[in-house]
Structure formats: structure tokens, C-alpha cells
Amino acid sequence: MFSREVKERLREYETPFYLYDLGLLRATLEGALREADRYGYLLHYALKANNDPRILSLISSYGLGADCVSGNEVRRAVETGFRPEHIVYAGVGKKDKEILYALEKGIFAFNCESKNELAVIDDLAGRMGVVADVALRINPGIDPHTHKYITTGKAENKFGIAFSEIEEVVDMSGDLQNLNIMGLHFHIGSQITDMSVFGRLCSSVNAMYRWFVAEGFNITDVNVGGGLGVDYDDPDSNRIPDFENYFGVFAGGLDLPASVRVHFELGRSIVAQCGELISTVLFTKVSGEGRKIALIDASMTELLRPALYNSAHAIENLDGHGAPEEYMIGGTVCESSDIFARNLMIPAMKRGDLISIKTAGAYGASMASRYNLHDIPLSVFGDNGVLENV
Ligand SMILES: *Cc1c(COP(=O)(O)O)cnc(C)c1O
Q: What angle do CA 295, 232, 346 make, to 5 degrees?
């Protein structure tokens, strides 16, 4: 994929590091916006997928809003050019100081997930003498057919307000003098590749919208969350997700008045493919059962997904030698789950080879930790395969 020249330049950086292709990020944003614009949909970017300031500044320059799940994410969004009136703040557990900061900034809306939270935001807004715009996050009880750690809209999950509690929320809403309940919010999970799941979400959204309107609420905004999956198996063939099909499913399934604004909060599908983790082979050996093992200088501290979700990323040996052989690829951390691949067919690995772990732009760098006192990885930027001069 990389020219020889680019490969040699990659060796100038200390591995492991994240390499981002800003050209691909721009093309992805343009693709998403083109399809969303056809229906007048409003796009937000979920900062938790990748919060690198360069990436955020580029995304905000396209006019997207921001979906934040902490006070620090709200602050980072403001610092990188997202307009406060385009920022939504979601999350099951918001601290008082985070709520106060978001109220101060005058963000677009809080996505609230419990009666308890509504009462607290009402109280804090009252003390500040402001009215907070609020969307209720509804847990629609839908199985998104994705990994169990990234489902959020099943009845058993901790997220959102359960159907069984909605009537109580309606009953208490008259007392919430400092809240303006203007929206409904849904987010049922991540890495969703079965589009029929979004079709079922649309039916829930339609029913919930009609129910709230019948209860006398003036719902001006409906937020259907994010969750569109990407191709981890064959990233080079599917560099830009199928936004046409995705937004088309909502256009066909949602039945809302034209005056209701429809919002999306995409994370993974915007940034996953533009990032890869570049690493170097440290050692190779053979296990007791005769399996080839390559140990690379990246680990779960730079890319947690394989250890956390048992997820597989496509891996390329940029210095590939000859015919594919079967390898286990392990990281440096003292945890048995720190494995990038268990039985991968890949050209023979040698000490010093450069390795690319693909589709690492989302939930990669943003989940990095300093476990084992590892350094937080650098970000290196390129544009359509040409590296930036630094
Ligand atoms: C994580 C998250 C998103 C983004 O999900 P993706 O699967 O990355 O698109 C959107 N909304 C909320 C509330 C989230 O927590």
C-alpha cells in the first residue's frame, strides 16, 4: 500500500504510532454529508471514537456538531472549533461539575438517561438561573446484533430510560421548571452491520415520538445516535462506509413531521478507516505446541479492542517476506489477552519488520492507557499516502 519511499520515512518515527490519512478522512466526511444532506439530516461526530485535536479540527471545519460523553470532551470540542450550540452531552453518569460546565457553555442539549439525572440537571440549571434543553435517552430494548460489550439499547443495558420508567418521567416533568424537554435520543450500540436493526430502531422512534406528542410534549429534535459499522476484515475494499444505504434506511423508516430535526451521532464510521497503528516486530519464536509467534512493539495499551472485545483487525507486514505462514501476533503487555491475532496467515515475520494494524482510527488512540507505564502513542499525519513533512 505504501510506496517504498513512504515506508522508509515511516521508519524515522519511533513505533508504535498512529498514522492518519487526512485525505481519506475528508473523503469520508464528504460522503457522509452528501448522503445526510439529501434528507436534511444533521450530523454530529462522537468524540470518544477519536479525540485527536487535528482530527477534531478537521471534522469541525465541515460544520458537524459534537456528541460528547464527559465534561472534558465538551471542553475539547469547544477548543477544536465545534460551536457550543451544536454540542450534545450524553452519558449515563454526568458529574455536577461537568453539568455546570456544559450549562455555562450553553450547549445544544443534554441527553438524559434517568429520572435522577433530570432532577439534578433541573436543580443545577435553576441555581444558575438558566433553562436547560434536554433530550430523553430512551432505551428501546433492541438487540443490535453486535458484540455484547457494545450493545447499549437492550433492556438489560445500563443506558437510557427504560420503557417501564417513561410514564414516571412524564409525571415528574411538570415539576422540572428549569428544563425544556425538546428531544428524544436513541443510541442502541456500535459496529452495527445489519441494516434491519436500524429499520427496527425507526419503528421504535416513530412510536415513541407519537406517544410523547400525545402526552403534550413539543418534540422538535430526534437523535437516532450512531453505530454504523465498518469493514474490519477487508478495509482496503471498503474504505468509506455505505452511507447511502445507511441514511436511506432511516429515510424509508422514519415517519416524523418535516419540522422535526433528525440528528445522527457517528463515531466509528467517520474515523475508523483513516487510522492505522504502525508497529515493529521485536522478536519471533515458536510456542510449546509448535506455533509461530511474532511479538510486536504495540500492545493493548495502544489498541485495546482485541483484548477488550476479542476483535480482529486486518494486519499487514509492510516488509512481507514470501509466502504466508500462520502466526500468533502478540503485544508487549503482561496479559494473556494482549494478542492481536491468534492464527493469521501472513508473510514471514522478521525482527525489524514494519507492521500495519488497520482500521484503528476509531476507539484506538482514544482508549490508550499507560498500563505498564507505556507512553501514549504519537500521531503522524499523511494525506492520500503522502506523509506530512515534520
Ligand atoms: C459511542 C456513542 C456514539 C457513537 O457510536 P459509533 O458506534 O462510534 O458510531 C453515538 N452516540 C452515543 C450516545 C455514544 O455513546
A: 40
